[in-house]
Amino acid sequence: MQRFAAAAHDPLGYAKAWKERTGRKVIGSFPMNFPGELAHAADTLPMILQESEDPITLGHGLLFPFYCGYTRSMVDQAVRGDFGVLDAIMFGDHCVQLLGAADAIRMQLPDTRVIFFQLISSMCDPWTQGRSEESFSKLKAELEDFTGAPVADAALHASIRLFNRNRGLIRRLYQMRKTGAAPLGSVEMQHVVKSSMVMDKAEHTQLLEALIEQVENAPAAAARTVRLHLSGHFCQAPKPEVLTMIEECGVTVVGDDLYHGFRYISTDVPEEGDPIQGLARWYLDRNTGVPCPTRVQNNVDWDAYLLNAIREERAQGMIVLMAKFCEPHMYYYPEVKEAFEKAGVPHLLIETEHESMALESLKTRVETFVEVVKHRQAA
Hints:
Layout: H1 2-9, H2 11-22, E1 26-29, H3 36-41, E2 45-48, H4 69-80, E3 88-91, H5 96-108, E4 113-116, H6 128-147, H7 153-179, H8 186-196, H9 201-216, E5 226-232, H10 240-248, E6 251-256, H11 262-265, H12 275-289, H13 302-313, E7 317-323, H14 327-343, E8 347-352, H15 359-378
Parallel strand pairs: 1-2, 1-3, 3-4, 5-6, 5-7, 7-8
Helix pairs in contact: 1-2, 1-8, 4-5, 6-12, 7-8, 7-9, 10-15, 13-14
């Protein structure tokens, strides 16, 4: 857990040490749909760029203040020179603010290779699979041009198997936490997932196997009064102090759909057949498994998924963590709110910021919410 926490706390420091140790390239990417398997098969270290814990300073002059904390932090890190360890950066297109951040970073890092690819956002049209395959094929070709070597199907299949193994082990931890068999809190689970976004997958998987063996032999987690689901936060990790505060209010978090949580590890890539077709299938299946408001799919609903997850987890309510100025979340939240009110399931919305938050006032709100949940259960 200490090694997971260290990589989660200083991801660029981990990447620098890995690069010095191996002599290989590092490719940073924005969330949420970059297939790390492709970059891994190209013999590089794929890492998802993380929001910095430092206050935003120099980056204020390049992005609007009403951009989310993640995008402003990305630009700030670029201006400060923190991304010097990166040989390339992969940008996606699932948010207008990320596109603005990509342009600002391009200006700041003219010598860093920028790889941009656009994935179709309409997930259930007849041509979606084919268009996704085209996008991943172009991405593969650009990676080959960047590294100067072909990405063989055999190497890509091996990377897919390794990444699937890693996701499967983390899902096992999630299942154990849900049943109370894993004495891991939300901060520890976040360290596990966040470090998986950063570390060499083989190293991370080896540590995961050791952790699961230890957890299986550990005493069961102490049960608290109220079981809750955490939802939201698509790009950045919730602050550990917020997660700790929630649990200190007598809460057991039994599930989540956070990006730095179950959303990231929910779906495997098919291991048989053409690997590019498999990655395209993974992209489509992820939105069916854990729907995302940045994608459009008329046969799945995020609010319905959340209600089903709460029933399956035997949760008694939900806390929604919404990053300030996250437009996709802001647009979709009214549907979640309406669905939960109609179903009679209590939920609490907490807006989070990159800058410091008034934890004491937030704690009062969470404590009040927990008491409401208790009274509803008693009634």
